[in-house]
Write a structure and sequence with these properties.
homotetramer, 126 residues, mainly alpha, globular
Chain lengths: 126, 126, 126, 126
């Protein structure tokens, strides 16, 4: 994907210009990404779900920055591991469709949790 | 960005087909995203940095799936908050370039940590 | 603290018996702890705040397990870094009392977020 | 456990004095806890495992504060859900001993990862 590849190249240059590539092992990048994901959670931790649907301009601006930070580290990791994000996403959407067939899981709130749970038990982590 | 917008539409349909949109408040989506970010960390938690650079095919496959999960929730959140991810990323890269001028931060490992820390103190969280 | 020290000793033996201490660098332990903290978040991600106040026995059992996992890794890290958790907690409660004087922050919901935010700006991360 | 119960009471008063209890649903507390766990990860993200074993006084001080924050939110959650942390930890240590019998898992690094993975597949998330 052109635009994403452009950004990945931009981010590699950004790191090289600062001699920061040495810190960008996949292990470290996964940590940095999770830290940004939590800074995103922090924007919402004391808000109700309803309030989270109605952010003020300042709140939305902060949320956007954290979302961008997550995206940036995800793209750095994709560069390091040679992962095509769009391909990976499409493959995962297919897997999810098989795991959660619409006709089986549609319905009450309860089923979503239940399906999440039984699927977690089947997930291969290797 | 065409491909990203396509995926966002696909993900919205996926949620609608299963009547899951009701759970997708920004607050909840931020939680789900952080959970996937941690499943990505989990792939690396007992590996050395060197091992993280040399993943087996099974390890890489698991990592790809978690990266895709993070990307998927990020795009769901972007849909809900009407955020253009590429725009947000470009704005953040600009901010980062100002915060970490290459000529100032290039050099020893120590400076990276030090700059991370003084920048954290200046970050506006609102 | 007797009981906590007993548990810390138990956990050290558990790791030694399995030759797992080699993986327990503070860096790795922080990762493992954050993973468990996210497994705790996962228990709540699709629940409303009200539902989270009324967990079923199975839900509560799962939550207890994740809380225990977080406590376990926190105690492992405390062992490795020679940190007295009760001392650290008491010091932090004092710091928090100074940062959030009751007479200043008591009142509307809005103030909590605002105080969280201005305090984040002052926090020294080093 | 006397000292822990004392701290839990102290933390409840702290929240009541500031009228903050309204924000302390278990859902929200799990989010706040995970945010602090990530602030702990952040202390280590650019350090090598070896560096994480040799923290400077300032680094150790920052780490202690984040560890305390995690402990504080864990105790708030324990109060809200009426969970006895020492009991929960002891039960989990027993479960772990059954899941990872020392004679089976002791040995090479590889086994630790492998056992982590097969155990994840068996874990009931409900």
């Amino acid at each position: 994907m052109d635009k994403l590849e452009q950004i990945k190249a931009q981010l590699q240059k950004f790191a090289d210009d600062r001699d920061w590539d040495q810190f960008h092992s996949p292990k470290n990048l996964s940590m940095a990404l999770s830290v940004e994901a939590s800074e995103l959670v922090e924007c919402f931790q004391w808000l109700t779900e309803a309030q989270s649907q109605n952010l003020s301009p300042e709140q939305l601006s902060a949320v956007k920055d954290e979302m961008a930070d997550v995206q940036i580290y995800l793209l750095r990791l994709a560069t390091k591991l040679n992962v095509n994000m769009l391909e990976a996403v499409n493959q995962k959407i297919e897997k999810n469709a098989l795991k959660y067939p619409a006709d089986k899981v549609k319905g009450s709130a309860k089923k979503y949790n239940w399906y999440e749970q039984i699927s977690e038990q089947d997930d291969s982590k290797s």
